[in-house]
Write a structure and sequence with these properties.
Strand content of chain A: under 5%
Number of strands of chain A: 0
Shape of chain A: globular
Low-confidence stretches of chain A: none
Radius of gyration of chain A: 17 Å
Number of domains of chain A: 1
Largest sheet of chain A: none
Mean pLDDT of chain A: 87
Oligomer: homotrimer
Helix content of chain A: over 70%
Number of helices of chain A: 7
Chain lengths: ~200, ~200, ~200
């Protein structure tokens, strides 16, 4: 129940980020919908394709399509007011990232992958919707250029597998993983923590 | 027989559209071939990957490769005269879109997907070759920016499923779906019907 | 043993080419790693997805991830000195292309595909890591614009299948295919052989 609510909120936040980028590029209403859709389900779709879990997730769960259509319509109608919800959107987005990472890790475990591959899969689930969005909009993906984003997914996944080494209830480890990702991202943005600069000039 | 002929004409039209975009970007002959190939088979390939129908279609049907190679060679040799066939090309392209949409829908039904997902799959089959073409050529996909294109696929698919509610021969519904897409696209282009503008300024 | 060594050298060369393109775009350290990773494993991943060999190769072979991580770290630390190894890198890269092409062809044969499709699959394995790298970096893929690169993969694959028509030991045909690709590419670059120009002006 709570899980479903978080999933829906994450989907909405991801879809809205797609709408904003697409409208910035002045795409037509079909383009805006596709970008929103791809941003919301692209990460999970890539994950499912790479592990061979087909038909991919959203094809058998029409509720995603419904949620995204409604989100796109409302976002386009009230795009000027979306700015007022910037903070809420950022929070939903962060919650979505935490949840999507752990969903991807779980899928990897079910497929029998090693922990390091599960973490890669979880990070991909959380981050590659945005990568595909940026490619379709002809931009270098924003997560390759700035902001601690994928890094917190990787760290959160690592913490989860570390906890599994101890006699801890898996559900508690699962929830702790999600919370760690959320808290680390909030802290990173609040204190403007960035990846080390690798360029001398 | 007729079906195969239409399929070949559609493939040719899609491949030529790839050649024209690629030559506009002054790619070398290998690049032109790849773009033509991807434009012609990209939509069906994405569809097959997403539903897990592998090896993907063109890999087991070498006739596609043969048709596309011949199309590319002839197109490059006579590129200056291609303009004279603009209207025929547009017609083949439109017929291809109608056919590909219904092929995709049929594949979705065979996979046991819901009607709304079948329509998404059909639209993808018809439109995503062009999307991949534009991404490889470093452009924002043209169908996200203008022209009623995907929209007629969605409407045509909707009409098909509507007809299936009534005691109508499925083959007739199938053909009607294709014809509706073709006619709607021709009308939309003739009367310059566009999607509603969502930008206030 | 030798085979594994070549595979590792090829992976390193591909990863370094990714690091160089990514640093040229001034991506952050996470972006550099992803581009290096995608360049090294992207071609094989696309191949595995298209033939339905999932989970895709690198997911079950963590040594690729380890090799790439080490390569990226060393490359970033000593990026200024990488120029001195330009010739070695080009050689590794060429060896990698020869090997990857034949690995892809072998996978195609195991899947029961026709020779022409196996050659397409081999060429894809060798070349599409670079294509995905360029798309992620918002460039038109370099292999569509210049340099005999894919063409030597196609020719090498053709030579391999030609040899299989004669009573030749398959392993010898396999190694000859790899060597042909390597030699043809070295000659093409040395003598500046290019694809015929298809543009009149």
């Amino acid at each position: 129940m709570l899980y479903n609510l978080i999933d829906v909120l994450g989907t909405i936040a991801f879809a809205i980020s797609g709408v904003l980028v697409a409208m910035d590029k002045r795409l037509d209403v079909f383009g805006v919908f596709i970008i929103a859709f791809v941003t919301a389900v692209g990460g999970g779709t890539l994950r499912d394709v790479l592990i061979g879990s087909t038909p991919v997730g959203w094809m058998t769960q029409p509720n995603y399509v419904v949620v995204i259509v409604i989100t796109v319509v409302i976002s386009i109608l009230f795009v000027d007011r979306l700015k007022n919800f910037r903070k809420s959107l950022f929070l939903f987005d962060t919650i979505g990232i935490g949840l999507y990472t752990m969903i991807g890790i779980q899928k990897g475990l079910d497929t029998g992958l090693l922990p390091i591959m599960c973490i890669a899969l979880g990070t991909m689930t959380a981050c590659f919707g945005g990568v595909i969005r940026d490619i379709l909009c002809n931009e270098i993906p924003v997560i390759f250029r700035r902001e601690i984003y994928a890094t917190v997914c990787i760290l959160g996944g690592g913490i989860y597998f570390l906890m599994l080494q101890f006699p801890i209830n898996p559900t508690i480890a699962y929830i702790t993983g999600i919370l760690c990702i959320i808290v680390m991202r909030l802290l990173a943005v609040k204190f403007k923590i960035a990846l080390p600069n690798i360029y001398s000039k």
